[in-house]
Design goal:
60% of the residues lie in helices and 6% in strands. With 927 residues, it is mainly alpha-helical. The strands form three sheets. Strands 3, 4, 7, 8 and 9 form a five-stranded mixed β-sheet that branches. The chain folds into five domains: 221 residues, 2-Layer Sandwich (Beta Polymerase, domain 2), CATH 3.30.460.10; 144 residues, Up-down Bundle (Four Helix Bundle (Hemerythrin (Met), subunit A)), CATH 1.20.120.330; 105 residues; 161 residues, Beta Polymerase, domain 2 (2-Layer Sandwich), CATH 3.30.460; 145 residues, Four Helix Bundle (Hemerythrin (Met), subunit A).
């Protein structure tokens, strides 16, 4: 028996845990041999007592929650909506709908409570609770809209069927709901110009909103689905329950107050017509994000915070502290973040993020909060939210206050994983103190460190630079002296008033970069190219200052691109790092010259600009790993396609030819400085071979040629049939014959990621059909694939595997890719989801198919992301295909900082743990 009642004596509150266990047993939920059921029982009895209350009312809920395939991973919102629709399918009237919604909510709360208390990530739980609220609202709106339309007639306006949208505000809008959150809603309908039978549209949608509010919020014997709060609507409790879009626009244009603008920062179309919701946001965007604001917004927020505290029941850390509204609590973190968004998001769309944690990250990468502030606020927010959830999972009540008795506080501390109440309170005191100190800095210039001012004013410069973290203070002092000699330099003896304040801020950012010495050296190279107007530019655009310092301290390759082309400041740095879609790139390429040398150099200039744009967004944290892959892959594909068009015109007699990408480009997981694995297949006979070969050679040459603007890509064609011994191009017939009759297992494995990227469309479609047949059609049994792939990996291990090799070393990228490709080759014929070229997508599909468990998935997915991130950070520095950790301890430390680790030791520790786990997972799968 996995769960034994004797375990309960180790619970935070053994007596209460035993009582709850007995209640579960009396209700029919006994000790279980199923480890998941037993784990949820343990959590319900010991950590989240409210789950016991829900389970006792219906014992089947606990088992259903524990056996849910999404017990240990985030349930997609589409899945939640589908499950809820199925649960409510038989509801014939409003009362039946209310019962069905509450029953599903109760079951989900047990699953989500267990995930909150150790089986999932808190951010995921907040999103899932918000998705549950969205789905419940959508179900209620659809039900009551249909009910009223049947009774009165369909609501019609000038555009047809009139629509209603429920906006989630506050935590619902930010997808950060907690277990006892109210849901703040604003109902908006499309227009007043119309009717619904004998009702005006206002009357009709008012009735819908009232019935939805009752269905969701009314407390019955089964509780509420969510309590509903409508006070954020225009005019609050005095205003109408629903507003048309035109009346909403008029209200905010005329009467909108700062706190209402603040509320709309988190507004999200939650249910009903999401298209109407997006239209509302577009109309209100000038109100929510005005281009210009004043510092008065900071005073307004500080005053609102002061009024909230004045109305709050007294409570200190020693007795009854309110983790939401108390000093240094959740509200101060939210208000701090929102104040900076209100000040800056009008000009910088990147900052328009609804979630508090997400917005905090964006503020950091925009240079508006420091790393110290970001870490302090993030750590405090996570702790305070965790405490908030544990308090609410005690009895299912909306509370944010710590217990007042020492005994209850002790239990809470242990439920949170602390040794005792003392440890909890010490941590909480530290976190809230940091938050309060940071909140108090709103609108206040922060003092600079003494060593910064010491260097700026030329006193004992080398000692000051050493204290700031420069590794070669003498050389750094020399570079700083070069800057001092420039006219209008902020480091000079008498800097211009407009730039005097730049010097300490700039030096502070350089010192905080991954490699301060490199950052300063590259800045010295940059200033003469851009001119002394740089100082005023960075004074007026402080986020640009941080971005420049981070770029110069992270990537010499990208920095040199900017130094050589300082005009890219306008196109990239001052534009808020706008992302270019594939369609944007296609349009940009189409506008380039087509004449010989000019065309080739123009393509290379475009690549340089776009690489800088992607690299900066990556360094600034604006792109996650998969977005970097996609952006680099899109860029390569568009450039290859355009190059192919240009060379195709020069080989008029060439037959139809398709260009097949394999490897990282085929998988759309291209990294920085990656070679392109390409194969060429033409449709024709022996007589066409010469022209097809010339076309292939011209394409390889055009991509790899070094011109004034550099080169595009190095091309590797060794994955063609017969490798180096084979012809550069293959006829379709010979290519088909080779893969049907002669290809080695590793060549079939390589085809897992094969994809046509340009050339003749009809031929490309035929090739992709053939690829699918060769890879996923009848073939070796799983055991044969297992043996073949394991043998190949063992040979690579012997010949290339070295300690610290991210790619070929034990537990490296190849282990994860080979394990994934084994699952695809062995089982892709049975599971359509595995027929993908992406490693990460294939791992997700393998988990969905039950071929790997959650732990194995987490190991392989997390390991791949970690290894590819480190590889990208290595390659972005010098634009070379590097995949080994540097041997020099100093370079290793710089890499750690570039990758976001506090030290090389921390990075290498993570590498050892992740690679060991990945190798173990590989061996389990291919043993």
């Amino acid at each position: 028996m996995w769960f034994h009642p004797e375990r309960l004596r180790f619970a935070p509150d053994p007596e209460d845990a035993r009582r709850r266990f007995d209640r579960l047993v009396d209700a029919g939920v006994g000790a279980s041999d199923d480890p998941d059921v037993a784990e949820v029982m343990w959590i319900a009895c010991t950590v989240a007592p409210y789950l016991t209350t829900l389970a006792v009312r219906d014992p089947g809920r606990l088992v259903a929650a524990a056996t849910d395939p999404f017990l240990r991973r985030e349930k997609p919102r589409e899945r939640i909506a589908a499950e809820l629709a199925e649960a409510c399918a038989g509801a014939a009237d409003a009362d039946a709908l209310m019962r069905a919604l509450r029953a599903y909510r109760a079951r989900e709360y047990i699953r989500l409570g267990a995930r909150e208390c150790g089986l999932g990530a808190p951010a995921e739980v907040g999103r899932e609770l918000s998705a549950l609220a969205d789905a419940s609202l959508a179900m209620a709106i659809a039900f009551h809209d249909a009910e009223l339309a049947a009774a009165h007639g369909e609501p019609r306006d000038e555009r047809g069927r009139a629509a209603l949208c429920a906006f989630g505000m506050g935590k619902l809008g930010g997808e950060e709901l907690n277990f006892s959150s109210d849901i703040d809603l604003i109902f908006v309908y499309s227009s007043d110009a119309g009717d619904a039978g004998g009702l005006s549209l206002h009357e009709y949608f008012d009735k819908v909103a009232r019935r939805v509010t009752r269905t969701i919020g009314q407390v019955t014997e089964d509780g509420a689905v969510f309590r509903v709060d409508l006070r954020l609507r225009p005019e609050g409790t005095r205003g109408p329950l629903v507003n048309s879009l035109p009346s909403l626009e008029r209200y905010y244009e005329t009467w909108g107050r700062p706190w209402e603008r603040q509320a709309w920062l988190k507004a999200r179309p939650s249910a009903g017509s999401l298209a109407l919701g997006e239209e509302v946001l577009a109309v209100l965007r000038p109100f929510i994000y005005p281009r210009t604001t004043t510092g008065g917004i900071v005073r307004d927020i500080a005053e609102l915070n002061r009024r909230i505290k004045a109305e709050l029941e007294p409570g200190t850390l020693e007795e009854g502290f309110d983790v939401k509204l108390g000093e240094g609590g959740i509200r101060e973190i939210e208000f701090f973040v929102q104040a900076l968004q209100l000040l800056h998001a009008g000009k910088n769309p990147v900052l328009r993020e609804r979630s508090t944690r997400g917005a905090l990250e964006r503020l950091f990468f925009a240079g508006l909060v420091s790393e110290v502030e970001r870490r302090a606020l993030a750590d405090a927010y996570d702790l305070l939210r965790q405490i908030e959830h544990r308090l609410q999972l005690e009895a299912g009540r909306q509370t944010h206050r710590l217990p007042r008795t020492a005994a209850d506080l002790e239990i809470l501390g242990r439920r949170l994983g602390f040794a005792d109440a003392g440890e909890l309170m010490a941590r909480l005191a530290q976190r809230t103190r940091e938050v309060a100190q940071i909140f108090a800095t709103l609108g206040v210039e922060k003092p600079f460190r003494p060593e910064l001012l010491q260097v700026v004013h030329g006193r004992d410069v080398e000692a000051g630079l050493a204290a700031l973290g420069f590794r070669d203070p003498a050389e750094a002092a020399h570079h700083l002296d070069l800057l001092r000699r420039r006219p209008s330099s902020p480091f000079g003896a008498a800097p211009a008033p407009a730039t005097a304040r730049v010097a300490p801020a700039l030096l502070d950012e350089l010192a905080a970069s991954p490699d301060p010495d490199q950052a300063l050296r590259l800045l010295v190279d940059f200033v003469p190219r851009v001119g002394d107007g740089l100082w005023q530019l960075v004074d007026e655009n402080r986020p640009v200052l941080r971005l420049l310092a981070t770029l110069f301290g992270t990537s010499a390759f990208l920095a040199k691109s900017l130094i050589q082309k300082p005009e890219l400041i306008d196109a990239v740095l001052l534009s808020g790092l706008p992302r270019r879609t594939r369609a944007d790139l296609v349009r940009a390429v189409a506008a380039l010259p087509v004449e010989a040398e000019a065309a080739w150099n123009a393509l290379r200039r475009l690549k340089t600009e776009e690489l800088l744009r992607i690299g900066l967004a990556d360094v600034a944290g604006e792109l996650d790993l998969e977005e970097v892959f996609a952006a680099l892959s899109d860029l390569a594909e568009v450039l290859i396609a355009r190059t192919f068009e240009l060379v195709r015109g020069a080989v008029a007699d060439a037959p139809p030819l398709a260009v097949l990408a394999l490897g990282k480009l085929g998988a759309r997981e291209l990294g920085y400085a990656s070679d392109l694995d390409l194969v060429f297949v033409f449709d024709g006979g022996v007589d066409d071979m010469d022209a097809a070969s010339r076309l292939g050679q011209r394409l390889v040459g055009a991509l790899g040629a070094h011109l004034d603007e550099g080169r595009l890509y190095e091309v590797d064609t060794r994955l063609r049939p017969s490798g180096r011994q084979g012809t550069l191009v293959s006829s379709l017939a010979s290519w088909q014959r080779y893969h049907a009759e002669s290809a080695a297992p590793w060549e079939r494995q390589a085809l897992v990621r094969a994809r046509v990227v340009c050339g003749d469309a009809a031929l490309g479609a035929k090739i992709e059909e053939d690829v699918a047949r060769f890879v996923y059609g009848p073939g070796p049994a799983p055991a044969e694939w297992k043996a073949a792939i394991a043998a190949m990996r063992e040979r690579i291990d012997r010949e290339l595997g070295r300690e610290g090799d991210l790619k070929a070393g034990r537990g490296g990228i190849l282990d994860i890719e080979f394990a994934t490709q084994y699952l695809q080759l062995a089982y892709g014929g049975l599971y359509a989801g595995l027929r993908t070229r992406s490693t990460l997508d294939a791992l997700r599909a393998a988990r969905e198919a039950g071929l790997i468990d959650d732990d194995t998935y987490g190991t392989l997915d997390g390991g791949y992301r970690f290894l590819r991130k480190i590889e990208n950070r290595l390659r972005i520095v010098h634009d070379r295909p590097i995949h080994e950790f540097p041997k020099d301890p100093e370079e290793l430390d710089k890499l750690a900082r570039r990758a976001g680790f506090a030290s090389a030791m921390a990075m290498l520790g993570a590498y050892r743990d992740l690679s060991a786990a990945a190798r173990a997972a590989f061996q389990r799968l291919l043993a």
